[in-house]
């Protein structure tokens, strides 16, 4: 599946958003408006005005809906539920496709209306990026890390769809080292 720059940026942003409150964790990395500003900067989200508490509340609600998309995306039985969630989100955001070239990027499509709130911006662009994966028959690429103490969301863009961990250098390596040490202990006994 060919994923263009815009779609990749939107996928990265939705992953970062969902992972600000990892599944099963008691933490929220969007604790205040400053954290929301850092999220916007980290993901180079353009056309955003002044952020406030209302934006924070709305983005947290969007995050919960995207987390639900990841929860439903994995099984074949839930294909319609995933599509329903995305359709409802994209429609509610008032999706308005338009061509633009800004900040040194060539022509690309934004799906949010000019002047849209951050929540609508994320819903439209990230929702469309996820919709492209569904249309491409790639829903199974939306995953959760298999490390039992992690559960971060990620999009498996590996060629053979075999990625199991959000980050092979941390979660994957940690589990491989633990398995190696367990084998060594077993062999020593």
UniProtKB/TrEMBL annotation:
<protein>
    <recommendedName>
        <fullName>Zinc finger CGNR domain-containing protein</fullName>
    </recommendedName>
</protein>
<dbReference type="InterPro" id="IPR021005">
    <property type="entry name" value="Znf_CGNR"/>
</dbReference>
<dbReference type="Pfam" id="PF07336">
    <property type="entry name" value="ABATE"/>
</dbReference>
<dbReference type="Pfam" id="PF11706">
    <property type="entry name" value="zf-CGNR"/>
</dbReference>
<dbReference type="InterPro" id="IPR010852">
    <property type="entry name" value="ABATE"/>
</dbReference>
<feature type="domain" description="Zinc finger CGNR">
    <location>
        <begin position="141"/>
        <end position="184"/>
    </location>
</feature>
<dbReference type="InterPro" id="IPR023286">
    <property type="entry name" value="ABATE_dom_sf"/>
</dbReference>
